[in-house]
Write a structure and sequence with these properties.
By secondary structure, the protein is of the alpha/beta class. It has helices spanning about 1-15, 35-45, 70-75, 95-105, 110-130, 145-150, 155-165, 185-190, 220-230; strands at about 20, 30, 85-90, 135-140, 175, 195-200, 210-215, 235-245. It contains nine helices and eight strands.
């Protein structure tokens, strides 16, 4: 957490001396890093979920469908195995939210981890009100990423959740490939080429309910593979929690938001 705060302070000082920077969200001038205070509030204006307005499985926004989106219905009809029981996405992966993730991952605005950790914390508390969660786990970083880049965004999230919010993240997965998801085709993702995961050797998976943390859900295949590993070892239910989701039907208007409240 010290490193994230240090990055925030340095970025603020640089921004101040150059006369401010452009907010990723609204393009206004700000002395904060990446986001102005108003856009930060927009990101944090999320605490709960409304299952009546989302797909019961992947969390996608529902427009005309009831219960399940067309994609999940198709998977069910074609007997395609879905191992996760439900995904809870916080925001839609669109417009300036994509720029925000790019700033975090590629431009090394590491201080965003503090903002995102607050979002994860609020969402975990919301989920725990309606679902019993016995263990919280996380999609692992690519092999060699820490050595090459010096830090990993989800590892930062794990550290902040643990130290600042007393949320324990259990280490259960190992990632065996260095290939990034975005560099793979949809078929390659589905086949698991370059994106193989396994459980840590001799890890004890109790028959409880697991919550997997990830930053962005695109096809849902990574979440599904990790959920399968847990289910095969005896997990009862596996849920997913992501900052953003890209599993949106083409029928959904880009103006539709994902913030809502749980029933």
């Amino acid at each position: 957490m010290i490193f994230e705060k240090l990055y925030s302070i340095i970025q603020f000082i640089i921004s101040f001396f150059i006369g401010g920077t452009e907010c990723v969200g609204c393009s206004s001038r700000t002395y904060s890093f990446v986001l102005c205070d108003n856009c930060k509030r927009k990101i944090l204006n999320f605490s709960t979920f409304n299952s009546n307005k989302r797909c019961e499985i992947c969390g996608k926004i529902l427009i005309s469908e009831i219960g399940l989106c067309n994609e999940c219905k198709s998977k069910k009809e074609n007997q395609i195995a879905i191992y996760y029981d439900k995904i809870f996405p916080m925001h839609m992966y669109r417009l300036w939210y994509k720029d925000l993730i790019y700033a975090w991952k590629k431009e090394n605005y590491r201080g965003l981890g503090l903002l995102f950790s607050k979002l994860y914390f609020d969402s975990i508390l919301a989920i725990q009100k309606s679902y019993q969660i016995d263990s919280i786990v996380c999609i692992p970083e690519r092999p060699g990423k820490l050595k090459k880049k010096g830090w990993d965004q989800m590892k930062d999230i794990k550290n902040i959740l643990s130290r600042k919010y007393s949320i324990l993240i259990d280490d259960v997965f190992i990632r065996k490939s260095e290939t990034e998801q975005k560099k793979l085709s949809k078929k390659e993702r589905e086949d698991g080429l370059g994106t193989e995961y396994e459980l840590i050797e001799n890890i004890n998976i109790k028959g409880g309910n697991y919550l997997i943390l990830d930053d962005v859900v695109t096809t849902g295949n990574t979440m599904n593979k990790c959920a399968k590993l847990l289910k095969n070892r005896g997990a009862k239910n596996v849920y997913g929690l992501s900052l953003f989701i890209d599993l949106i039907d083409t029928k959904v208007s880009v103006g539709v938001g994902l913030q809502c409240s749980m029933t």
